[in-house]
Amino acid sequence: MYNFEYEKPSSVVDAVAALASDEAQALGGGQTLIPTMKQRLASPAKLVSLSGVAEMQGVSADGGLLTVGGAVTHAEVAAQASAYPALARMAGRIGDPAVRNRGTIGGSLANNDPSADYPAAALASAATVVTNAREIAADDFFQGMFDTALDEGEIITSVKFAVPQAASYQKFVQPASRFALVGVFVAKHADGVRVAVTGASEEGVFRWGEAEAALSADFAADAIAGLSLDPSGMIGDLHGTKEYRAHLVGVMTKRAVAAAT
Amino acid sequence: MPKDSGIGASPKRREDVRFLTGNGNYTDDINLHGQAYAAFARSNVANGKINSVDTSAAEAMPGVLAVFTGEDFVEVGGNPAGWYIESRDGTPMKEPKRPVLAHGKVRHVGDAYAAVIAETYEQARDAVEALEVDIDELPAVASSVAALAEGAPLVHDEIETNLCFDWGWIEDNRAATDEAIKNAPHVTTLELVNNRLVPNAMEPRASTANYNPGTGDYTLYTTSQNPHLTRLLICAFVMGIPENKLTVIAPDVGGGFGSKIYHYGEEALVLAAAKKLGRPVKWTADRSESFLTDAHGRDHVTTIELATETDGTFIAIRTSTLANVGAYLSNFSTCVPTFLHGTLMAGNYAVPNVYVNLKAVITNTAPVDAYRGAGRPEATYSIERVIDKCARELGIDPIAIRRKNFIKPDQFPYTTPVGLQYDTGDYDAVMDKLEEIGDLAGFPARRAESEANGKIRGLGINSYIEACGIAPSNLVGVLGARVGLYDAATVRVNATGTLAVMVGAHSHGQGHETAFPQVVAEMLGIDEGLIEIVHGDTSKIPFGMGTYGSRSLAVCGSAVVRATEKIIKKATKIAAHMMEASEADIEFKDGQFSVTGTDKSVAFGEVAFKAYVPHDFPAEELEPGLEETAFYDPANFTYPAGAYACEVEVDPDTGKVSIERFSAADDFGNIINPMIVDGQVHGGIGQGIGQALLEGCVYDEDGQLLSASYMDYAMPRADDLPFYAVDHSCQTPCTHNPLGVKGCGEAGAIGSPPAVVNAVVDALQSAGKDVTHIDMPLSPGRVWAAMNG
To answer: Residue B627 pairs with which residues in a beta bridge?
Structure first.
């Protein structure tokens, strides 16, 4: 690891100011950034920890909307998001206890790892990503592997989830990393079903439109029995071919529908 | 009533107190005054010509004390292969030089070509990045198949081939085996890959060297399974340091699994640096270096043929294997695929014709050497997979076909066609035990239950034999070994009756500090707590060969017994003098020397005191003191054997395999500490299941390691493994060592992979899938592809 400066502001304003300096990098829980720095693959001049920012804490529910502060850890969501059980359950199965007690929702969404769980939850929930500057709909936020709508220095201060009528996240883990080889978040909203898929695509998290249409018409696992995804855009690697991932999306979607509560 | 001490008891492991309370003393815990740090520059290409390494900028970096390149070691020796193999045509194996630092060429990703010594580790790493290096990347060969292709790039230009040797075992069997297979009514053929593995000891390799300019003495603290062997290699082959001037200390070592048997260049580098700087120099591998440079395991590509009568009677086995040995010949890389693999190719079976052809192939990958089981898992996997396939083809039950061909108890000692003489065994008894502990009769009901839950269930059977405690030295010398394979122990009785037992074996997870005292305590009739085991320090212990190949108890334990016998013999003489009796009338029992037919007795501790305070002592007949050393060179290998059963459920939607039951019946001969044996078997099965389902070391065709971290290399976790049923009550004691023990450290890793794969194939067959084989690891994607192929 190379040397770096470290700041821990207590307000969003101070955090934004700290991030304005050259080669400054926001630090959420550090579950991706710190290992990358240890391997000398990243060398920010300054880390700005967001964990002490007061406005970015807490989980609250209000009239069908669950709001999670940008610095809230996965363990906190697992314990406190009872208004949205499928989300709490998903958060409780990210990584291992050490990861869940450090990693944050803001960090996960801003990183947009193609195998991370939160992007699927946010997309399926039609979440709104709130930053220091604006509000971004989940549909506009994710822009491909490790790419988001965030501008340089922009901070996710909270995430607002529309709590669905029923939802479930089904994850098939990659055996080594235990990230999602394929993860599917199905959410049934009053205005239709959303199906968000992580782990599978070379473009990062995506919505499976055909399945959404079929499930909006008939919210039953059998409704998508005849559907299949084109493998060509899927990730193929040591742990699964493109065809396998495309197949797993179907399996996990069916399981999510069957398990949705 | 189970014993609570001595042989057969299960006292808790005394070493665990310090390990579990953070009081272990590992190499990286040792910090010496004035210590500097080494970091290595490693190749990021698999094959490359080094045009230049400009060190000037690095030397000017803050804190930098010295920079070494391959040029600095041109004059010193290379790290040798420890076993000479002759090809079928009588030509010697090709032995490319293995330098301390690469010179002229780099030959695998991770190959070190320079090292920086600095005041801090971070400064050393910064300076490594400042080296100005000009390396031309060359085409690489990353697999044994690619390396033997016509016109393949050469790993070592000077040997003009990538073929290290082409070995036949036994060449005299070849014609008869070919003929038997040609004429056999049934031949089953199977092509398989024994997947390459990264050893993944919990503690990475580390070495700290010290040099005293006042005395010329070196000390090397290093992560070794065999400190004397490391010292011998460094002194006699690599650096020419007089053996009396180098102490090698392997303190607590956090797992080896074979990867810490060998001498590595980093050890030589820190020694050279310590001398040059007159300061201690430390290096500790990070996990990436472990993945890239620890000697890997397995990596065989095999075709095996099994010829049988139509009733399943075995007629002949013939195998043809490519063994990838990596870019350089690690110390036992040439022995593992030959004498630890080819010699086991008869398995537990009376099969009259066996012929093994093995080509060792040099590639642009990390060196490959012994990894838990070392050759024997590869042999067992090939045999037991082809038997399973054969049984299916002939419609014979997999247990029945094995029983039909087992060597029977009255056939021992049994000489196989591949050069081993099994001393004892009862394979049917072990299989009976397996059927009992695995409740194999209940399998159909369990299968029906799984099917009712939408899963497909399979049962896999395996029986294995292994050869442990590789020996004797006279024989292995004829076969090409360049070292002896005895071990040694010194039993030092202190004046107050406590003991220090100095052993050549090295404990890095095996529990020697608990088990060895049980043996000595049993023999002397004293409390185990009075006995201390000393190991790992060449300045304290007799010259022993360390720990690998499940040899510690069978070989070093036998030396402990012999030394203790000498102690008893001398103590008997002292006791006879003390009680004014004839030596012939002295009886030694429960720690008391008594005169037969009288009530006179003296305790062992009193005799010890007399030995060291020798007043009224028969000085004309006996030396004072009570300390004895024994070297033990076994008469033969030992032959543990067992039968394993694995039951899996396969999820037909995803291909995911889950292990539902796993049963292991082993014959280890006599058992010293059943709890430790259970633990050894559990760990071995964990690694075997890891190989079967999860672990795969994969290079791409350019020689880049794709599975270079835990993000892509899947280690078994607790929830991947079931509770095991293990049993070692079938005991046919070894006939040629004094304890009657056989060794248990590798059995689990040898016996489990074929059981798992056999179970998965059985499951898929039961679901009507025409799948006869899947190469390990049986990841969900591979199983799904096989089901839908």
So the answer is: B492
